């Protein structure tokens, strides 16, 4: 997706060979118009899949996911990183490790909002090691729901996330694929060919 | 706003006399169409105020705020509850106490994204004691930005939030005002008249 690729090239800040900071349009300040366009793109890709729910994880996944949900005219469901005091009934739970933050979070979805009648599209901001997307897929599986695919904004293609998701049988669509962050610059997949 | 009031009455779960759970359309599963309509309403109320940025706080504020930002065609900026490892430059910081969670969070906005050229509209899901909105207003003040107003989805009018915000000179617009949660039921302001 050209608009997103342009933003990544113009506004992305390379922190080191593994970390790309996109606080200017995604992870702190958010470009709402760009999120809207992203909703259009994922809708065009997955509109025939019978999607009933968009599934994401707080906090950075919410902005793109709500726009995708709006375009599909279905609810957006975000997994929580801590069990709220008000969640006393049943829930699905799995562990997700963040390599960036070096921390394992138990993520939770209430069983009120996900069932074997659902077909979910997983949306997340980044794909690196695939931990968050695989965790969301496990939550869907616990509910007996089908995962139609995984929609990612920025894929770090030099990390194993895509391979792990594909091994799990998931269809992955990434709007911007980063081949490398070496030499303090962003190289997109295809750019060096 | 009738659509939101209806949702609160139909889907809101009274936990106790102070806590209303709205996980069905706002705080866990999110009604994307309703968030879109909320963007329209706040835009119609604040469109003449020269808003340059929508300011909110993670995580539950993001969904309505991004829709408001989209309608205003301005960026959405969300304050973070923890300093990210990638935020090494200057930032504004203030403390926000959550009475529900009985926890004080230091909330942060990078000084890259807020300046004395900005006029912000603060958006949040709930108004109870006003801590989050006042904290966001302090962040705006630290940046020299103007706060045009505070847009709230659900106000608990039996708690002091609105009074505290108005004392601070802020214009408050709440789309649904809850007068009481007593007797295990939601009474909206005006309903008992």
UniProtKB/TrEMBL annotation, chains A, B:
Gene Ontology CC: cytoplasm
Record has Transport as a keyword: no
Domain of life: Bacteria
Keywords tagged on the record: Cytoplasm, Glycosyltransferase, Purine salvage, Transferase
Positions bound to 5-phospho-alpha-D-ribose 1-diphosphate: 128-132
Pathway of action: Purine metabolism; XMP biosynthesis via salvage pathway; XMP from xanthine: step 1/1
The keyword Nucleus appears for this protein: no
Assigned protein family: Belongs to the purine/pyrimidine phosphoribosyltransferase family. Xpt subfamily.
Entry function: Converts the preformed base xanthine, a product of nucleic acid breakdown, to xanthosine 5'-monophosphate (XMP), so it can be reused for RNA or DNA synthesis.
Protein's name according to its UniProt entry: Xanthine phosphoribosyltransferase
Gene from which the chain derives: xpt
